[in-house]
Structures are given as C-alpha cells and as structure tokens.
C-alpha cells in the first residue's frame, strides 16, 4: 500500500512537470493562443482592479466629505469624529500581516472579491443608523415649526402657553430621551468604517503582486500606473457625490420638505449623508463581482518562463507538490528567516537615511492627514460656505491639483535625470515652499460673525470672558430664556442673536422659513430707542469674506500642487537607500509606521484642538454637550493652520537632516545617479546594494494613500 502511494505521488509529481517539459514542442499557433489568453486575462484583471481602486478611493473620500454631517447628525464633538475617521486604519492593521503572508498561497482574486464584499458591508453599516434613530430634530421656536398655537418668543408669563401644548412638548422630549439615552448610534458608523478598513486590506498587496507576476515585464509598470490613476479619479467623484448629497435634506423621502425651516447655510443643516454610503456600497459590490470568476493563476508570460524570477504563488505550488521531499528544507528556511529577522531590523534602523526619512514622513503625514480631515469643516466655519459648495470645490479643484503634482514630480525626475541627492533636494524644496505658501493663509481669514452675547455684547462692544453669562442682558431680563438653545435669528442691525427669546422678541408673524419676529427689545443700536424686527437664520459673514475665500482657494490649490510634487522623489529616495533584499521589509515597516503613528492619532488630536475653539455648544435632548454650533473664527484659524505648520516645520528639519547625511556620505561622482538607474549610491558602502532598475523606478511612483491626503 505504501509502495503504491509512493508510486502515485511520484507519478503525480511527474505529471505536474510534464506541461513544462512539453512546452518546447508547442506549435507556433498554440504559443500565440497562450499569449493572447495571458494578455486577455491580465487585462481583465487590470480593469477589475482599477474599478476596485476607484471604488475604495470614492468611499474613503466620501467619508471625509461627510465629517461635519456626521458630527451634527449624532451630536458629537470633533474629537470623536476623529476616532471614527481613524478606525479605518485600525481595521486595516488588524489583518494586514495575515493577508500579506497567506495571500500568495491562496486564491488571490477571490480574496480581493471577498474584501470588496466586506468593504461594501461596512459601507452599508455606516448608513444604517439613519433608518433606526428616527427623524432628525433641530432646535426651532414653535412658531417656525408651522405651529397652530400662537406663542410669544419672550415668555414673560408661562401661562401664555396653553398647558396642553406644554405637556405635549414635554412628553415628546421625554420620549426622545428614552430613545437616545439607551443608544449611541455613532458606534455603528465607527464599526462600519472598521469593516471598510478590513475589507480594503487585501486589495493593494494582492492586486499589485498579481499584476507583477503575470504581466509582461515591459507592461507591469504601465498597468500599475493605470491602477494608481483610477485611485486618483475616485476622490474627485467621492467629493462631488458628497456635494450632491449635502444639498439634500437628511430625511428626504421621509418628511415633507416644505415643513423644513432650516436651509443648507444653517449650522444645524444635515444633508442626506447616508445616501452616498448606499451608492458607494453598491459600487463596491459591483467592483468585487469579476474577481470571483478570475483564475487562481494565469499562464506565465513567455519572457519569464526561462527566467529565475517566477511568480510568488507558483513557488508555493511547486512546494506543495514536493511537500514530503522538502519539508525539512522548508523548516530550515523558516528557521533561517526567523534568525535573520532581528539582524535585518537592526540593519534597517541602522541606516540613518531611512530612519530620518521615516521620521520626516511620519510627522508630515500627521500634518497632512489632520489638515485634509478637517478641511471641509474649516472652510464651512471660516468662510461661511455650505457643505455642498465646500465638497464641490475640494473635489473639482484640490484633488486634480494633487494628481497633477504627483505626475509632475515623476516627470521632473525622468526629464532631468535627477539622482538620489537631487530627489532629496526636490522633496525638501517641495515641502519648504508648500508650507511657506500655507503660512500666507493666516492673513486670509474672516472675522467672527457678530453674535450678541458671544462675539459682541448687546451694546455692540466686545463681550466679557464669561460667554455664558454674557448671553443675558438688561434687554432680555424679563424673558424666560434658556442659555442652551441655539435657534439663531438675524436682526435688522446685522447682528445674529442666539434665539428669538434672547433677542427679546415679543411677537412673530408667518411660519417656517418665512417667520418674522417683531418688537425685539435687544435688536437695534444702543442709541436707537425703538425696537426692531428679525428674521429666521443667522446673518451672513462680512462683505470681505467672499473675496478672502477666493484668495484661499487659489493659495490652497497652489499649495496642494507644490506639496504633491515632492511625493514621488521622496518615495524613490526611500527605495534607493535600502538594500534590495530589505526593500519589502522596509516598505512594510514604513507603511505600518505611517498608519499607526499618523493615520490613527492625527484626526483625534486635531479634533481635540479644534474643539477648544468652540464658543457655543449644542445641547442634547437629555442633557449633555452636543455638537459645536459656533466657533471662534480667529482661534480656529490659528489652531488649524498653526498645528499643520508646526508639524510641517518639524518634518522639514528631518528632511534637512536627510540631505545633510546624504551630502556627508556621497562623493561628488556619486551624485550623478540618474532616473534610469545607471549608477550611484545612497550614502552606503555598496553600489550594488542600492542599484534600482528602470522598471522599479517607474513602479515606485506610488505615494501611500495620496488620493485622500490633500
């Protein structure tokens, strides 16, 4: 029985080798058929992978565009929104090692397909709270809610309000409390984003290696370039989708839109944030379908059949067929790899160029991730723009500038045959001028809106430091007002009042958005003796603000382009300064460090810093602090831009140190390393260790997660 099984094993092993032995006897026509099959298969995979990259980039950028909508819908502070945003990176990190190690042994296309399903499930989960947490309720005075009961905003005597109406209102509040107190629905958004991170994990490592394994040598770089182009187009559509959904009211299809008394310009406005996630989820499902029908492996290209570099997966296939004969060798190899791990790590961290560039990248990505995450919020609060317009501007202007900058960086490297030292200079120059341009944005802000009791007093002078007490003045002392309400009205004097009650209004006329308040004792100049009227909604920002917003857009686009130019040279510098056998390990450590030390913490501490600039917090129905209603424009500008610039400056110092080490270690003749990899060094002793061929350089133009950074 044993002999028979050995013979069968031997026969099976011979059979697996036979196709390779017979390949030399294939006719010309069969060889051409195989070539067509290979090319057709890889092109189908390329198209499918490009669509997946588009889908994941679209959903990722759409999340960025809905940051302020999520904050308002769930009544949470910016710091908590930062945790939600960082959960994607956490999900990615949970399984990246398992996927990277076991991926090559399994059916790579199907793993990518499964990842797409998980990613779509996470995207759908983010949208689910909309269907379970009831209709969105915003703070509004009863007369603006089409109420049939005539109530004076300034409740001098509570008997003015019919008892039944008060009881009914109180009952509604109590019911709302019971629903909201038992659930924190934002957790589903966090879990959904975590699932998105898990599902996205296999797409890049398995997809790129599959192309590299089965594409013809000359086409591999071109195919990878196509995939990365799709990754840049995705965010454009993501932000445009965010712009479209932000125009639609959150409960569209569930409520009568004529009864909605707030407009997109109101800080309480929440767009149909959930709708975009449903669309993105459907796109992710569609993107994953082709991978379930793709083969585990394609025929190897003719150019690779005789070469020593076979596909990563084919090595595992051969090992499986010879399992009994080489099990001891495998164990020896694993032991040798484990033994070599610590020396490799020591070698990597002993490279001063690598460690300094790693530090520079970590600090710079902290700066860029924080800036990009809260850019929509900054534009909305600083320049008084709607969420829809903000997302439209970012998607149509900023993202293309980033794409053009990355392309320009690679073009400059190739055109001028820039070497390692030149790449370091270009990367440093890009960061320096980019952050220098960012410095000019300090002068392009808008002043605070005039809000009585918060930014100006009721007499038009600056308020005292105690903002809560400043909300009450002599003109509204006879009214029974709450300091927690936020139902802004715009007075004839151009000042915004926190509520009609705090404005001292005695009567109102009309309903909904057309409500007009009369006999407002606090509205009007201090010298004026007569009372004035006010309308629903806050007053517009100053006349200079639209002009400042235009200047901001111009500088922002130039800054995005300038910073992006240095992405490709910096990444090539990273690759050239590492010994060939340590490249994969070094890039793995680099990606891990960026995700753990920048992707996760940056949105959180940026959010915490932005929360410190809040002047007026909203109140939850059951008590407790909600989302911020009004920010101090000047403080927000200094915190947001200041934090970005401080981190950017620190990264520049690290980049200068990289350049200094390179200059110190490189001789003049070694500085002539050209972009086609002819010769040169990166400050190490062996040129051979640092040689990079042309194909590697073309493939290295990928800047991690560039599609969502600026």
TrEMBL record:
Keywords: Cell membrane, Disulfide bond, Glycoprotein, Ion transport, Lipid transport, Membrane, Transmembrane, Transmembrane helix, Transport. It is found in: Cell membrane. It catalyses: L-thyroxine sulfate(out) = L-thyroxine sulfate(in); L-thyroxine(out) = L-thyroxine(in); 3,3',5'-triiodo-L-thyronine(out) = 3,3',5'-triiodo-L-thyronine(in). Residues 45-666 form the Major facilitator superfamily (MFS) profile domain. GO terms for cellular component: basolateral plasma membrane. It is a multi-pass membrane protein. InterPro entries: Kazal_dom, Kazal_dom_sf, MFS_dom, MFS_trans_sf, OATP. It holds the Pfam family Kazal_2. GO terms for biological process: monoatomic ion transport; sodium-independent organic anion transport. Residues 469-524 form the Kazal-like domain. PROSITE patterns: KAZAL_2 (PS51465), MFS (PS50850). CDD domains: MFS_SLCO1C_OATP1C. One of its GO terms (molecular function) is sodium-independent organic anion transmembrane transporter activity. NCBIfam families: oat. Belongs to the organo anion transporter (TC 2.A.60) family. This is Solute carrier organic anion transporter family member. It comes from Cnemophilus loriae. The lineage of its organism: Eukaryota, Metazoa, Chordata, Craniata, Vertebrata. The gene is Slco1c1_0.
